[in-house]
């Protein structure tokens, strides 16, 4: 199956968020690689590393036990991606990761839709909190998360790809 990742005019009115299932592994791969290529500093992985993953690796990543993946689509065009997973050492908190909106679709609320998809999934699964790491200086992402109800915790860690940069932890507690 092929997916159009082009950047033709698109409207928020036609944008929908769709949760991915294991058979969508190639779509997840394509959008994830597009995100890593377009925004190399925003993620804790690299295009070079993930281009080397084989089909088995992508399929393994799509197993339901490894959490949620969702794409935003404007018609047939994938315009955004997000994931949510459960790190073992975070006391049941869901971590939102792989947040990306294609440049042509930004500033229309697509990012906010993707955040809400992870929050809805985490709440339905009974998790107490959603957290995420944002690279210091990624003001656009930080504003999106703040508007979506996340606050800074003060916890930081070095960026895995660049020890000169720090990532900051933001959290959004969920109603029980
Ligand atoms: C960060 C990112 C996901 C934001 O996505 P987005 O879809 O543009 O986010 P939103 O549309 O929800 O909000 C962005 C801006 O558009 C504005 N906006 C939202 N809906 C709007 C609408 N309907 N009309 C006009 N403006 C709108 C928001 O107010 C916001 O403005 P601000 O940044 O000045 O506060 C996107 O820029 C991106 O993919 N960046 C590269 C990767 C990245 O940094 N990922 C995050 C890793 S932690």
Automatic annotation (TrEMBL):
List the Gene Ontology MF annotations in alphabetical order: acyltransferase activity, transferring groups other than amino-acyl groups
CDD domains in UniProt:
NAT_SF (cd04301)
Q: Which domain of life is it from?
A: Bacteria
Question: Among its keywords, does the record have Cytoplasm?
Answer: no
Q: Coiled coil located at which positions?
A: none
Return the InterPro entries for the record: Acyl_CoA_acyltransferase, Bact_Acetyltransf, GNAT_dom
Q: Keywords assigned by UniProt?
A: Acyltransferase, Transferase
User: What range(s) does the N-acetyltransferase domain occupy?
Assistant: 15-175
What is an example of a Pfam family matching this protein?
A: Acetyltransf_1
**UniProt keyword Acyltransferase present:** yes
PANTHER family, from UniProt? AMINOALKYLPHOSPHONATE N-ACETYLTRANSFERASE-RELATED-RELATED
Any idea what this protein is called?
A: N-acetyltransferase
